[in-house]
Every structure is written in structure tokens, then in C-alpha cells.
Amino acid sequence: MMHRTIVAVNKELLYSAALRQKKEGWRVIGESTEIRDESGKRLFLLEIEKEEGDLHIMTPEEFAEKMRQISVKYFDNAEAAHGYGDDLLCEMLIELGYEKGIKIWINLERWYS
Length: 113
Hints:
Layout: E1 2-10, H1 14-23, E2 27-36, E3 42-51, H2 60-73, H3 78-95, H4 99-106
Helix pairs in contact: 2-3
């Protein structure tokens, strides 16, 4: 059985995200779809699939380590850190099967103070 999901990435990460998905056993289906959030930021949606037996769900330790890496790499750029943190949260929720909700969330208007 195949598992399909959607990954949202910004333009700068589009190529590396596709490579990472391939490395992890995912196959990109078709072309990316460009969308814009309410602030005009361009995002690209990739539909990917993988054999269900090959699925790997991120462990709490892996999640914490990835968040730590984001906080170290973007310690001086709160906006980038927040964006990459959001992307990681979406990735984790998609792995857990919440892709329909993530598709809706991606298109919600965002507001930051």
C-alpha cells in the first residue's frame, strides 16, 4: 500500500526538499504547485508517496534534535527560525497522518506582532 502526502517548502528549499524526500525513500509525484500565503510569500507544494512498509515516523528525540539544529542555525534570525520550526512541525504532523489539516493550515492567514 502506498502512503501519499503533501510537503510545503519555500523556493530556497524546493530542490533540497525534493532530494531529501528521495533519499528517505519518497517519490515526488508530478510537478510542484506554487501557492502564495497571505503575505505574498511563495510556497511550493510537493505531492510525495512511499510504500507504507518503508514509513518512518520521527521520534521525539529526532524532533527535538531537528528543532535544536534550527535554533542554533537561525539564532540571530527569529523570522527564519520560526518559519523553519513551523515547517518541521508540519512535517511531523504529516508523518502522523494529519496532512488534510496541514493543507488547510498552510492557506490560513498568518499574523505576527
